[in-house]
Amino acid sequence: MCFFFLQLSDIFVSFDETPQGAASLAQVHKAVLHDGRTVAVKVQHPKVQRQSSQDIVVMEVLVRAVHWLFPDFAFMWLLEEAKKNMPLELDFLNEGRNAEKVAAMLAHHRFLKVPQIHWDLSTKRILTMEFTEGGQVNDLDYMKKNGIDVNEISQNLGQMYSEMIFVQGFVHCDPHPGNVLVRKCPRSNRSQIILLDHGLYQVLDPSFRVDYSRLWLCLIRGDMPGVERFSRRLGAGDLFPLFACVLTARSWTSVNAGISCVPVTDTEDVEIRTNAALYLPQISDLLNRIPRQMLLLLKTNDLLRGIETTLKTRAASSSFIHMSICCIRAVARWTFGSVRVKGERLGL
């Protein structure tokens, strides 16, 4: 739709000029259409396209300078990811397509709400969608006040992300609390998760996804030969112990015991933070080794762990059960598909 010759009053009955939320790329306004529907209008900041290109250039200079001064620190992976993802995040039509795809993909999860897109009122720099309200997923007071079960939310969030990562290979990679809202559904009065901001997704290669599923199955049950095997297959090489610890945010002792068998303690968290500072060069080396599709998964895992920590549901048995089920589904489908292909080649 062309907006150049239209006034706001031609499209909206009301438009709240005070943003509901603002970030580095855009801000969101609440508005009401002439047919009475309330919408959220995401508007890209005017100079962000040009500024982002300049930021990439500055980042490249800094990354190369750091690597020249400190050869052990190689952050080219950061630059490559920024170059790849920034144009996608700035294309709001791409964000709308991602939203519709994940809504259809996870439609069987009744607890998930993805706002509908108004395509006739959207462009590459303006995204108009259904307006939805809720509290942030880390707002414990809001959940208590509205009778929302924290454990149910944590379980559903883990189930949803396990399916995205291990089964579907299409992953929303920005689940910070501002993008994950919770509420009681106005119609059913059931707890709902509202997933917002669909600009950053990672598509996983099927073979990578299956190896990643096999690795997590080994990590959950403490199968150390399997942890080494699949960590190496995912590019970690001889840094596989570090990779397992980075991936799980658990100590090497807990990884050896099986992360589902050992509760997370404050002492272990302190150990992880201390070791992270000590092993920065090795972590930098590791991040340069592993497949690029792993990088956004590490970010996603970290954000989800932060939510679980706030909700006090980290390392809950139910999360490992759902994760294991999705991992087994992924491996079984892959195995069945491979057997079928071999059978067809043999004329069976």
Describe the protein in words:
By secondary structure, this protein is α+β, with helices and mostly antiparallel strands. The protein has 2 domains: 47-88; 134-339, no CATH class. The protein has 14 helices and 11 strands. A hairpin with a 4-residue loop joins strand 3 and strand 4 (38-44). Helix 7 runs antiparallel to helix 8 (224-233).
Quick gist of this model?
The protein is built from 14 helices and 11 strands.
Strand content: 5-15%
Count of helical segments?
A: 14
Cα-atom radius of gyration:
22 Å
Cα shape: globular
The SSE string, one letter per element, is HEEEEHHHEEEHHEEEEHHHHHHHH
Number of strands: 11
* Mean residue pLDDT: 89
> Number of domains in the coordinates?
2
Report the uncertain regions. none
Give the structural class. alpha+beta
Helix content: 55-70%
Q: For the report, how would you describe the main beta sheet? A: 5 strands, antiparallel
* N-to-C span: 54 Å
